[in-house]
Design brief:
This protein is of the alpha/beta class and about 290 residues long. The chain folds into three domains: about 5-85, Arc Repressor Mutant, subunit A, CATH 1.10.10; about 90-160 and about 260-290, Periplasmic binding protein-like II (D-Maltodextrin-Binding Protein, domain 2); about 160-260, D-Maltodextrin-Binding Protein, domain 2, CATH 3.40.190.10. Helix content is about 45%, strand content about 25%. It contains nine helices and twelve strands. The protein has helices at about 5-15, 20-25, 30-45, 60-85, 100-115, 130-140, 200-205, 220-230, 275-290; strands at about 50, 55, 90-95, 120-125, 145-150, 155-170, 180, 190-195, 215-220, 235-240, 250-255, 260-265. The strands form three sheets. Strands 3, 4, 5, 6, 7, 10, 11 and 12 form an eight-stranded mixed β-sheet that branches. Strand 1 and strand 2 form a beta hairpin. The radius of gyration is 26 Å and the shape is elongated. The model has no long low-confidence stretch (mean pLDDT about 90).
C-alpha cells in the first residue's frame, strides 16, 4: 500500500470511474486499474463494483474510503510542514481572532513584523466570539488562535493582561461611584456582547451566584457601546477592547473586586504546529515580552 495507490482509490471513488480518475491524476487508465487491483489483493476485499463502465464502491470500499481520506489529509500536512521547514518561502497560516483586543490591538502589530519576515506565507484571519475561536482550534480549522487564558486544553503563550470594567450610561446613578460590584450591575438591563470575553463575563456572574437581567445579546462591541450610550443597559467589557475616543459617550468604572484578564495565543499541540505557526507565536511572544 502506497500513498499513490490511496490517492488513486480516492480519485476513483470521487469521480466514479477509472477514466475520469486517470484524467484528474494525469496518469494512464491502466495505472489506475493496476493500483485498485493491487489494493484489493493486499487487503483481501473487493473495493469497487464495475457495471458497464460505471464504478460503484462496495460497502467495505465505502468504509475504507472514510479511513483513507484522513490519512491523505495528514500526508498533505506533512508535506506542507516539510516545505515550510525548508524555506518558509511558501505556506499558509490560519489565525483565529476575537474582539477588538486581538483583532485591533494585538494582531496588526504581529502581522506587520510577520509579513516583513515571511512575505511568502499566505495569511487567513477568521474572526468570531471567543468560544468560536476555541472550537476552530479544536477542529483544526485554524493553526493559532487568540484566547482568554487560562485554557488548559491548549499550548498557550500569554501576551497581555488588562482588566474587566463596567460601562454605564452617562446619567446612571452609579456614574459618580469610584467602582461598582457585580451585584450593582444586576439592577439594570444588561448588554452581553458575544464579540469578546462573553464566556468570562458569564462565569463571573455564575461564580458570584448572580444572574444579570440580559436584555441584549450583541455580536459586535460597537453595538454594545451604542446600547449603553443610549441608556438601554449596562455591561462589562475588557478595558483594552474600548476605543480611545469613547469617554464622552459612557462612563467606565472599575469592578470591585478587580477582575484581571489575560489574553494570549494558543495552538492545539505545539509539537504538531507548522513552521508558519511556530514562527507566528514565537514572534508574538517576543514582541509582547518587550512591552
Amino acid at each position: 500500500m502506497t500513498l499513490t495507490q490511496l490517492e488513486i482509490f480516492v480519485a476513483v471513488a470521487e469521480r466514479r470511474g477509472f477514466t475520469l480518475a486517470a484524467a484528474q491524476l494525469k496518469i494512464s487508465q491502466s495505472a489506475v486499474s493496476h493500483a485498485i487491483k493491487a489494493l484489493e489483493q493486499e487487503w483481501g476485499v473487493e473495493l469497487v463494483l464495475r457495471h458497464q463502465g460505471q464504478i460503484e464502491l462496495t460497502d467495505i470500499g465505502a468504509r475504507l474510503l472514510q479511513r483513507v481520506q484522513p490519512m491523505l489529509g495528514l500526508a498533505d500536512a506533512i508535506r506542507q510542514e516539510a516545505s515550510d521547514a525548508r524555506s518558509m518561502k511558501l505556506g499558509t497560516l490560519r489565525i483565529g481572532s476575537f474582539g477588538p483586543t486581538s483583532s485591533q490591538r494585538l494582531l496588526p502589530r504581529i502581522l506587520a513584523h510577520y509579513r516583513q519576515l515571511y512575505p511568502g506565507i499566505e495569511i487567513h484571519v477568521s474572526e468570531g466570539p471567543d468560544r468560536q475561536v476555541i472550537e476552530w482550534l479544536l477542529d483544526r480549522e485554524v493553526d493559532v488562535g487568540f484566547v482568554t487564558l487560562p485554557e488548559s486544553q491548549f499550548d498557550t503563550w500569554p501576551l497581555i493582561e488588562d482588566q474587566m470594567v463596567a460601562l454605564l450610561p452617562l446619567a446612571h446613578p452609579l456614574a459618580t461611584h469610584e467602582s461598582v460590584t457585580l451585584e450593582d450591575l444586576c439592577c439594570d438591563p444588561f448588554v452581553l456582547t458575544e464579540a469578546g470575553s462573553s464566556e468570562l463575563v458569564s462565569r463571573l456572574f455564575a461564580a458570584a451566584k448572580l444572574k444579570p437581567r440580559i436584555r441584549y445579546r450583541t455580536s459586535q462591541l460597537m453595538s454594545t457601546l451604542a446600547a449603553v450610550t443610549r441608556g438601554d443597559g449596562v455591561t462589562i467589557v475588557a478595558e483594552s477592547s474600548l476605543p480611545e475616543d469613547g469617554g464622552e459617550r459612557y462612563v467606565v468604572k472599575a469592578l470591585n473586586p478587580t477582575v484581571k484578564r489575560q489574553v494570549g495565543i494558543a495552538v492545539l499541540d505545539r509539537t504538531q504546529s507548522t513552521a508558519a505557526a511556530q514562527a507566528f507565536y514565537k514572534l508574538a511572544e517576543k514582541l509582547f515580552a518587550q512591552s
